[in-house]
């Protein structure tokens, strides 16, 4: 039989300092014997596959794609979780990206591995061979999931294709149905679960990673079956876009059962947690994202300076903590996101309460309004005046110098997107602020060190900054591009519990009464809420799908999950219909010596709209031109 050569990643990945895609060390062209005959060769091959696995981590954005160094276009800035100074983008992924081709290269890697390794099986134990084959199937399944959630049904390639062994026409494989792709993913993950070990090296799949990924993929399929309204059928009757609604129960059950396989194998991170101690609960949640021994981590992507890095800290720290690169505060959580959490004054409609009787409420410190907020909020978002890296983060919109006898009336009418008036308000156009002399003789910078500078590119535009995943003790000298190396947690146990709860509530709504699905969902949600320091649910009567979705948004905020959740729930076009997200601007009243908050629409008037055709992305035109058997998605 003909020997094929293969390009492998020999040892380590190399990141260039320029803003370009992931590259590797100069490749070696070697024969199969050099790769598959030794554990070291197989390790190198595995390293290549895992490094190219299409997961949305620190180096992903819808604008720039996967494994891209320069990410100043965060996913959260398209979902309503956050505002970005540099991006007012939609939830449409850039259709010029190479995702399609990159994914099929990974699939070929996995297929080649699965076909070639058995020829060398005598060199290894049965367990080794089975484990490695399980990893290959895991990688293939995760890669097909990256494709199907973007494009719907795609060509199903489960073997190595080579020309001229196969003719050109044989290589022009048509798209399979969306349902068939999800079933294929489920089968691959079942194989991986059966053959993978219970534990593996960090960054490599275990049997429970396979089960967790299956809970995610099957939940996605179930929601597509239930909520999708877009259909595309080819000439053979294959449903390329959409899944029959009758399959929703099947997929939700598969998601639920897969999640249940992790019972007793992982647990929510509670190493520093203490009942009733909000500060301990806050610190516990912060620490969770940096503890390599966390019992919650199921599948991670590791980074290590200097050979593999990202720039998360440099782009996202509050301005007063930024390094020499001059980047900061790219992710500015919206008030809409903050209002999802419990524990601060709210109006009847759930919005933050900032006025009483038409006059602003006054606070001695900006943190006072959040004094009773659930600890998970503080661990996710830097609130104005909270402490980070040992300093108070100063976020102000300005200093109010007008009269305050009888209270201060709203500075702008409700619903206004106008800029604040200059009368009676001292504001700053940039970070070089002229300190204002207060009546007591002290001085104050109008916007603080990290506040809203109307002409600056490094400031908070929402009144908040991001805390999740920011390294708590990274020195300012290291807050640079190409310098962060914290681990990305792609799958953690909290998500699996949320998958399980969502599937359970959906099954209950679909009339499945063979199990106590609603009671189980109640148990999982309360476990997450307890760890978060939130108020516990008191019963199942009001446990709706909206309650589960809200909990998911809070728990998984800024982990690149809401982008795909809004798409699979088919709610993006409803939530983003010329939508302007809201901000919370702290002001200091000079005459009162106290603060008030103005909750308002983003004064930049940034509007977000989602076109329903974007639920299925455009197949690259170059691929369509290569094969007339590929049918383009609707609307393109």
From TrEMBL:
UniProt KW keywords: Cell outer membrane, Membrane, Signal
Q: What is its main location?
A: membrane
Q: What InterPro entries does the entry give?
A: SusD-like_N (IPR033985), SusD_RagB_dom (IPR012944), TPR-like_helical_dom_sf (IPR011990)
Family the UniProt entry places it in: Belongs to the SusD family.
Which branch of life, at top level? Answer: Bacteria
Record the organism.
Mucilaginibacter rubeus
Q: What positions does the domain RagB/SusD occupy?
A: 308-636
Name of the protein this chain belongs to:
RagB/SusD family nutrient uptake outer membrane protein
The SusD-like N-terminal domain, residue ranges: 91-219
Q: Which PROSITE patterns match?
A: PROKAR_LIPOPROTEIN
């Amino acid at each position: 039989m003909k020997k094929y050569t293969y390009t492998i990643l020999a040892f380590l990945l190399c990141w260039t300092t320029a803003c370009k895609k992931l590259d590797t060390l100069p490749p070696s062209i070697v024969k199969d014997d050099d790769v598959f005959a030794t554990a070291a060769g197989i390790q190198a091959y595995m390293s290549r596959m895992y490094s190219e696995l299409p997961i949305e981590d620190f180096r992903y954005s819808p604008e720039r794609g996967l494994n891209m160094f320069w990410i100043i276009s965060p996913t959260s800035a398209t979902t309503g979780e956050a505002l970005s100074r540099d991006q007012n983008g939609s939830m449409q992924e850039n259709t010029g990206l190479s995702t399609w081709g990159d994914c099929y290269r990974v699939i070929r890697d996995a297929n080649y591995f699965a076909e070639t390794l058995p020829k060398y099986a005598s060199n290894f134990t049965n367990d080794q061979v089975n484990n490695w084959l399980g990893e290959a199937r895991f990688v293939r399944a995760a890669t097909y999931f990256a494709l199907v959630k973007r494009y719907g049904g795609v060509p199903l390639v489960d073997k190595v294709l080579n020309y001229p062994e196969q003719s050109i026409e044989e290589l022009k494989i048509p798209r399979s149905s969306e349902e068939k792709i999800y079933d294929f993913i489920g089968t691959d993950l079942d194989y991986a679960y059966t053959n993978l070990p219970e534990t593996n090296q960090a960054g490599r799949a275990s049997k429970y990673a396979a089960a967790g990924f299956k809970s995610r993929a099957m939940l996605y399929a179930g929601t597509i079956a239930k909520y999708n309204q877009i259909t595309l059928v080819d000439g053979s009757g294959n449903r390329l876009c959409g899944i029959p609604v009758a399959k929703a129960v099947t997929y939700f059950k598969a998601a639920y059962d897969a999640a249940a396989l992790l019972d007793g194998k992982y647990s929510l991170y509670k190493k520093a947690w203490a009942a009733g101690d909000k500060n301990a609960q806050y610190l516990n949640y912060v620490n969770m994202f940096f503890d390599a021994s966390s019992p919650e981590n199921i599948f991670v992507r590791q980074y290590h300076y200097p050979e593999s890095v990202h720039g998360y800290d440099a782009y996202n720290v509050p301005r007063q903590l930024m390094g020499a690169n001059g980047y900061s505060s790219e992710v500015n959580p919206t008030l809409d996101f903050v209002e999802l959490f419990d524990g601060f004054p709210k109006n009847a409609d759930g919005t933050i309460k900032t006025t009483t009787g038409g006059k602003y409420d006054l606070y001695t410190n900006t943190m006072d309004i959040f004094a009773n907020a659930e600890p998970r909020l503080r661990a996710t978002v830097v609130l104005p005046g909270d402490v980070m890296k040992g300093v108070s983060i100063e976020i102000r919109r300005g200093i109010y110098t007008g009269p305050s006898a009888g209270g201060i009336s709203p500075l702008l009418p409700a619903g206004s997107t106008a800029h604040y008036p200059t009368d009676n308000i001292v504001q700053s156009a940039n970070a070089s602020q002229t300190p204002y002399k207060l009546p007591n003789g002290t001085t104050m910078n109008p916007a603080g060190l990290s506040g809203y500078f109307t002409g600056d590119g490094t400031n908070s535009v929402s009144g908040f900054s991001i805390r999740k995943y920011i390294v708590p003790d990274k020195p300012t000298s290291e807050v640079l591009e190409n310098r962060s190396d914290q681990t990305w947690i792609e799958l953690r146990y909290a998500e699996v519990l949320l998958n399980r709860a969502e599937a359970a509530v959906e099954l209950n709504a679909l009339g499945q009464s063979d199990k106590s699905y609603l009671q189980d969902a109640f148990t999982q949600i309360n476990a997450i809420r307890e760890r978060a320091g939130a108020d516990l649910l008191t019963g199942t009567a009001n446990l709706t799908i909206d309650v589960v979705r809200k909990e998911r948004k809070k728990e998984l905020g800024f982990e690149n999950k809401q982008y795909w959740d809004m798409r699979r729930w088919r709610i993006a076009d409803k939530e983003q219909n010329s939508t302007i997200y809201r901000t919370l601007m702290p002001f200091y009243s000079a005459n009162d010596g106290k603060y008030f908050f103005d909750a308002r629409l983003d004064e930049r008037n940034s509007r977000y709209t989602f076109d329903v055709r974007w639920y299925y992305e455009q197949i690259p035109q170059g691929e369509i031109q290569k094969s007339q058997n590929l049918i383009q998605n609707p609307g393109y």
